[in-house]
Write a structure and sequence with these properties.
The chain has about 325 residues and is of the alpha/beta class. The chain is about 50% helix and about 15% strand. It starts with a helix and ends with a helix.
Length: about 325
């Protein structure tokens, strides 16, 4: 690709990505701080990936996706996952109509642009698998018929890391379907003061619609066009490969800590998330810093830890940090 094309692409992406600032501004009216959360929501939205959020209760996880759906003017549904939830409660079911003397399809809450799966690890495996088809295929099978889900379709699932009673660990296959796993942290002191003040007055700002679902779908097409050099592609493959064969990258000390590394889906997600990050930064090409910026969110749920690692209190984030530092930057 010659430099003229890059310049044209850059100009086009600067024009196409102008709504990102509008969206961030609009969400900033409602959500205090949580810059990392908002940025990752946008990455997921622009690259068509689902997001798993982990954090203690009360950190605006539900509020964040609700605000995003208001700003995008899209349909939002929230599903509270409980141990007695059934697949039909998520995807819908066939209901007998006495008037028409036939079964009619009653669509479930998964038929929305944004679906919040609240406390996803509270439900058993068969509910998870019902959601899995929706996440992977963007379709739902009810009875003998298959129904497409509205586009854009984004699942944001939350899980509480502290309370383990009555929870079911998510199947590996499903965790891998999430493009990003975001750890939501506590707000800074100044931000918390602002939150207290907002709640004290009872005046809660609401986000106004600034973009349409069509704008998002068009932006996704543009994100795919963001230029990625072969060197960057190799860099991504090296990072993911280092989680599988750490010995090849002078990381022999990690060999006994990693049970399994990232799948090819990790490489695809890392490439797509890097392009979306470049788009958010209004650039028409991916640089190594973009890859490093999204690396932890993309890989932290795709690396399995051994008993040794857990005994030594080693986290996946620490492993990713070592991998990033060891792999040669192009």
């Amino acid at each position: 690709m010659d430099s003229v094309n890059i310049r044209e692409l850059n100009e086009r992406i600067q024009k196409e990505s102008s709504f990102v600032d509008l969206l961030t501004l609009e969400m900033g009216k409602v959500i205090v701080g949580q810059k990392n959360l908002v940025e990752n929501l946008l990455i997921g939205l622009l690259s068509g990936g689902h997001i798993l959020l982990e954090g203690v209760p009360g950190l605006a996880k539900t509020l964040a996706i609700n605000t995003l759906s208001q700003a995008v003017d899209a349909k939002f549904n929230r599903i509270q996952f409980t141990p007695d939830l059934l697949p039909a409660d998520v995807i819908g079911t066939m209901i007998y109509s006495q008037k028409n003397e036939s079964f009619e399809v009653h669509k479930g809450p998964v038929f929305a642009n944004f679906v919040l799966a609240d406390e996803i690890n509270r439900s058993p495996a068969k509910v998870q698998s019902a959601l899995l088809e929706a996440m992977q295929e963007h379709q739902v099978t009810i009875g003998e018929n298959t129904y497409r889900l509205p586009e854009p379709f984004l699942v944001m699932a939350t899980q509480n890391p502290i309370e383990q009673e009555g929870t079911y660990p998510l199947p590996e296959a499903q965790v891998d379907r999430f493009m990003l796993k975001v750890i939501v942290s506590y707000p800074a002191k100044e931000e918390e003061r602002q939150i207290i003040r907002m709640n004290g007055t009872g005046e809660f700002p609401k986000a106004s619609p600034v973009v349409t679902p069509q704008d998002i779908l068009r932006a996704r097409e543009v994100v795919r066009e963001v230029y990625m050099d072969e060197k960057i592609e190799r860099y991504i493959v090296d990072i993911v490969n280092a989680t599988r064969k750490p010995g090849d990258y002078s990381l022999a000390e990690l060999k006994d800590l990693i049970a399994y590394g990232g799948s090819p889906r990790a490489s695809i997600s890392l490439a797509m998330a890097s392009k979306a990050y470049a788009f958010i930064k209004r650039r028409g090409y991916v640089i190594p810093e973009d890859v490093r910026a999204v690396c932890k969110e993309v890989l932290r749920h795709r690396i399995g830890l051994t008993y040794e690692a857990e005994a030594e209190n080693v986290t996946t984030d620490e492993i990713i940090e070592k991998v990033i530092n060891a792999v040669i930057v192009p």
